[in-house]
Amino acid sequence: MQHSSTQDTLVGLFVAAGIAGLFFLALQVSNLNWLDESHGTIIRHGNDGC
Amino acid sequence: MMDFIQTLGRNTRSSFTKLGRATFFLVQTVIGIADILPRPRLLLNQLYSVGVLSFLIISISGLFVGMVLGLQGFYILSDFGAEETLGVMVAASLVRELGPVVSALLFAGRAGSALTAEIGLMKATEQLSGMEMMAVDPIKRIISPRFLAGFISMPLLAALFSAIGIIGGQIVGSGLLGVDDGAYWSQMQAKLDFQDDIINGVIKSLVFGFVTSWIALFEGYDAIPTSEGVSRATTRTVVTAAFSILGLDFVLTALMFGDD
Fold first, then answer.
1. Is A7 an 8 Å CB contact of chain B?
2. Is residue A40 a part of any domain in this protein?
3. What is the pLDDT of residues A35-47, one digit of tens each?
4. A23 CA to chain B: closest CA distance, Å?
5. Which residues of chain B does A26 touch, with a Cβ-Cβ cutoff of 8 Å?
6. What domain count does chain B have?
């Protein structure tokens, strides 16, 4: 059994790598673009006074 | 003829009895998860054995699977002048199917067999009975942390497998075969959907992690406490988990992608 702090570090790195993998799939591979504001459109409702 | 019918009946009855024991075991295991929260060290140790130690085989396999997909995909797509869709082919294959399925099969072979052998040997050497003698519930102390670790590790490993595989496909496609790098990524981003592809892949890997951990732990807990019994249980774990993963993959694929 390895020293527990080394083990903790390795588990932390593993979880971080897994989450990074999920983010990579979400942002780089699929078209999830909710962080990209350039895709949003602002629609103004109501009377503009003209 | 009567012997055959009797054997069939006996086997059916024993199969249902085992399924009942397995279900009862699962319920106890899931209830035992609540007791892990005050002792996170139990979970961390198992995340190391089940997740970290499976990382190497998963990442290397993912890289080579992605590279082979890139190579084969390029040869097939170039016949139709559609090399630029290589990224879509590699990513869709990995994220939807190969990532969850192959990583689950590797997980069953690497971590599942180790779990069965460990629990089976604990039973054979009467460590589990010893814990019961000391009023320590072996399900809560031994089984539940391993089950939760398998359930958490599987989607992380599958995501890593897919991500590394996609990079492997890019290395071969763009680096070696001359597919445009921008086209590789942009076509992929245009065609793959977060909800339909990525989330469904994660759901699949969660289901596979649940089933594989359940089978591995139950087979170990239910093993005949001899060296031969443990070896048979380990073999059964890999075979049963492989069949379950492939069968469930068909069902889940039909449910998730059936309407497309």
1. yes
2. yes
3. 555 555 555 555 5
4. 9
5. 194, 198
6. 1
